[in-house]
Amino acid sequence: MTLKIEPLDGPLGARVLGLDSGKPLTDEDFATLEQAMLDHLAIVVPELEENVTWLRDLGRRFGPLVPHVLDQYHHPETYEVSIIARHTGTAESRTTAIPAGAFWHTDLSYEENPSDAIFLYATQIPSTGGDTIAANMYLAYESLSEKTKARIEDLTATHRWGWNTGGGTPTLTAEQQATHPDVVHPVVRVHPRTGRKALFVNPGYVMKINEVSEGESEELLGELFEHALNPDFHYRHTWSLNMLFGLDNRASMHCAVNDYTEPRRMLRMIVGCTESLQQAA
Ligand code: SIN
Question: What's this model's pTM, rounded to 2 decimal places?
Fold first, then answer.
């Protein structure tokens, strides 16, 4: 395949043309896609015929795929792909207070080894709404004042599963919950592949900054979140059917917009961590 990469007009993202889910992905195609994700943080493939095993194989090229913690959301053809459905009137449709991912977060930041990337593929979309917004956390970091950069340089934050997700995460049993103890990550992360610094806090999973008082932590997190939620750093992704969206989680956060009542169904792959944060820092 000869792939064409067209940068989007905005703070992140590139359109990929020429990808064909009926043909095996060559090493050259993968290298092009990987480089596009590194250069632009996100890729958008406008039209790709549904082929679940091909999608899974694409995801696997980026790293180990992390299955959903709950088996009922696994795709029947492969547990490495999960189904994120809402208002579909089927057993796979989520019944959480708000849709999955409808809060600002970075996938698996509550794990010791967070995720490198997320891929979403649309199999059903509402006639309006249901966008996904992604924030460029390189830009969020780079645009902080020098004073704030110096203040947060050596700070760490505690991340917790389901912390501030507004009911967007399913309730886990005590046993499942125990597999997700709180974790600590640097507030400023160095991307292991690009060497660029990114702000690595998100409202969904970050509870507190560890080295300061409770009050100071709340104030500083409020300041950092408000800064990162500036639309200047955002790309709002509007879905069409059979579209694939891939996002580098190491320097971004995202939020599914909860503004629709018609069926929406995504296939999701979460790529695990290929290089630990400790190595990266
Ligand atoms: C997610 O964050 O896992 C899902 C995002 C979306 O459905 O747009």
Answer: 0.95
